[in-house]
Amino acid sequence: MKKLISMTLFGIALAVGSANAQVYVRIGPPAPRREVITVRPGPRHVWVNGYWRWHHGRYVWVPGYWVVPPRPRAVWVDGRWVHQPGGWFWVEGHWRG
Question: Could you tell me the pTM of the whole model?
């Protein structure tokens, strides 16, 4: 019974996660990779760190990259995996400011 309730709640979390474009998985992500940050292409560019993405039932590394912020003084906030009882969900990175 406890397993059935757990699986039902997990199914609901998946459905809600899909509606909100969130990813919710039971397996925690690997440690972040150490990346070699290349030479900055221009003075306005900022580095966006790489991250682990859940894709077709496994984690896949998405490498970091340089990007020009969408507006002056905007700061990039990295995406992150957040642990909650029963699994992990992805919070997208975004521009603040």
Answer: 0.73
